[in-house]
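_Per-residue structure_
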Amino acid sequence: MSRFERVWGRLHRAYESGRDAVRQARADPTGRADVTGRRASPGSIDASAEAGVASPRSPGPVAPPSAVVVGAEPPAALHNSTSSRDDADVPHALRIAAAWSWRLIVIGVVFWALLKIVATVSIVIIPLAIAMLLSALLAPAVGWLLRARFPRSLATAVVLVGGLAAVVGTLTLVVNEFIKGVPELSKKSSEGVRQIQDWLKTGPLHLSDSQLDRYIEEAQSWINNNTERFTSGAVSTAATLAEVLTGIVLVLFATFFFLRDGSRIWRFLVRLLPVAARWKVDDAGRASWETLGAYVRATVLVAFIDAVGIGTFLVIFDIPFAFPLAALVFLGAFIPIVGAALSGGVAVLVALVDSGPVTALIILGVVIGVQQVEGHVLQPLIMGRAVAIHPLAVIIGIAAGVVLAGITGALVSVPLIAVLNTAVRRLAARTVPDTPPDAVVVASQAP
């Protein structure tokens, strides 16, 4: 509808309204003035104004309630329906809270459904997540071999086999050291237990022999009562051996193809998106991959420094299982804050059994000192701002990972938080890359 037609419609409605008002004035039996020019009675002035007809004494025509003024839209009803009247009676704050509530409920239901799906296919998702971590760790080595003009498949195979050999060799050394140290530890354990008992008697606790005997009996009874539970757990663990082997094979295959065809896989995924969203998604994905690689490499370096620091003091104080305990500290450092503390606690317990409480306290001080150096010097210096995560987010992520997927969940939760943090920040940014990467160019040319 053109502007002229809208103006013409308004004029027509005003004309019809005025004609209806004149007809009502003529039909009024009280003697109001009509449009023939006859004088209206003095009392008819107000009536003429109410009827919408101009009188000599009235200031001008007054539109009746049903009249439509030229150039004005008809007044909208205050309440269009019963529901709108009900909404108007509800306080504004309560309406806002209700709107947020149902949206949060929908988000919670979707999140719960995603968790159910992840739990159902966890046997596939967990190996893929571990393969992503290994790929981020080994990708620089593959790139170095590619720059040395190795074929991509050969470079990937060499790096993967070399990494697997390093892991197997380390595990072999740990097992051999453990087997060699068991007889020595068993000999010293009785002496260490006696030292602990003497310390409990003469130390600040001042426990009596009867109290010690009662505590020892309670510990033995607890072990006897829970033997069946431990045995059933071992049996169930043996029953899942096939799943573990399947996961290991899947990790190896996925790592190989992530290292060899990672760029092509990413281009394929970007090509599935709308063209307008490809630039931002590609930028967020590449930044997230860089964050994951930086996190994994920094964690490996920090774990190595922790293991060397604690292992050196274990060797100095002649604590058995020094190398296996150092390897345990190295693995535990992959779980920030919690892992290194737990692995260091194992070293303190071994020192307590082997050398007594004084040496154990010294090892405890070493573990705490290494933790402080790691938290305040190594992580800020090595990881930097690119993967900086608040400690509260780390603790919550580890707790959620343990509840959902056990030790593997604790291992994967923190890098997942780091990746999501980078991805959300890049996607929420208002700017896009000035020059589209190769993956986006290829994707934009796809049909």
